[in-house]
Amino acid sequence: MARRLLGRPELGSVVGALAVFLFFAVAADGFLRPASLGTVLYAASTIGIMAVPVALLMIGGEFDLSAGVLVTTSALVSSMVSFQFTANVWVGAAVSLLVTLAVGVFNGVMLTRTGLPSFIITLGTFLMLTGLNLGVTKLVGGTVSTKTIADMEGFGSARALFASAFTVGGVGIKVTVLWWLALVAVATWILLRTRFGNHVHAVGGNAEAARAVGVPVRATKTALYAGVAFCAWVSGQHLLFSFDVVQSGEGVGNELIYIIAAVIGGCLITGGYGSAVGAAVGALIFGMTSKGIVYAEWNPDWFKFFLGAMLLLATLLNAWVRKRAEAAR
Predict the structure, then answer these.
(1) Alpha helices of the chain — where are they, by DSSP H?
(2) Which of 129, 169, 234, 240 has its CA 20 to 30 A from that of 175?
(3) Using one digit for the tens of pLDDT, what is the confidence trace for 205-223?
(4) Distance between CA 207 and CA 201 in Å, rounded?
């Protein structure tokens, strides 16, 4: 049992999450208040929704540097289609889903057809989307932000699905927490109980060896990029229906946060190792740290320092856990 536990990728992140929780429970007076816990969960969920598919992609041996701006693209397309064509907002959301998935498939096809590193492919997509987000928004609306769609048909039902909130035991819970937990459950089932999950680990460990035994490497990697795109669509719709308008420059830099959460959660940069649960715990650590520093009334300028320190410590701990697990086999 102990040997099996040592082999779990998320072990280090769980220990780290407990340590961070106990630290801020003592250091920050308001950290354990119901309202504070709700804020922490919300911050963690907005990162976790994207950290989970990014973790699967990293297990498959690839990166996606366009994930942050793709969230903004999703929101912009949904808003502008709805406003410009005076359509039901669900029409805009549907078109946004198609466009977002197309970007994910584009990343996957370009990667598998050209043989270029995912860093180069998705960096190119990142730059193109950043320019398109700003250029098209200014061209269509004349400003860097979208127009309000709050008075359009379907807005209420869309907000209920993507941006509503409810209370459990005095803690305000955003619906993004449910999306986050559902994605973790689905991703964990895929990794541990399906043939596709075996393919993900295989292509991340050694793509050529996987191809030699019949694993569809191209289809697997393209599907992983499509998964990132779907979750970017969910996050984009939350962004839109939470605030009604979207700034075209948002999302830049968030892709690194998703990767950091996945690495803190036990994913290896080299691929072939990690878990969806670990990525979720990494997002939780991010949420606790970002909000805990505020509740402790520290200078928020130190947040990036703590984030970098956690990244290094998590990477070292993950490497140690994996070596112990391999030695115990």
Answers:
(1) 2-6, 11-27, 34-59, 67-84, 89-114, 118-141, 155-162, 175-193, 195-205, 207-212, 217-243, 254-264, 276-295, 303-328
(2) 129
(3) 899 999 999 999 999 999 9
(4) 9
Residue found by looking up tokens 């950091």 in the block: 260
The sign of the torsion formed by the CA atoms of 248, 249, 252, 254 equals: negative
Q: Which of 39, 24, 90, 56 is nearest to 259 (CA)?
A: 56
> Is 258:273 a contact under the CB 8 Å cutoff?
no
pLDDT tens by residue, 161-209: 999 999 988 889 999 999 999 999 999 999 999 999 999 999 998 999 9
Cα angle value 234/127/287 (rounded, 5°): 45
| Residue 174 dihedral angles phi and psi, to the nearest 5° | -80, 150
Residue 274, classed as helix, strand or coil, is: coil
For 125, residues 6+ apart whose C-beta sits below 8 A from its C-beta are 65, 66, 70, 103, 106, 107
**How far is it, in rounded angstroms, from Cα 187 to Cα 276?**
6
- Provide the whole-model pTM: 0.93
> Token match 């689905």: residue?
186
Report the C-alpha gap between 33 and 106 in whole angstroms: 45
Indicate whether 315 pLDDT > 80: no
CB 77 within 8 A of CB 95: yes
Roughly how many angstroms between the first and final C-alpha of the chain, as a whole number? Answer: 12
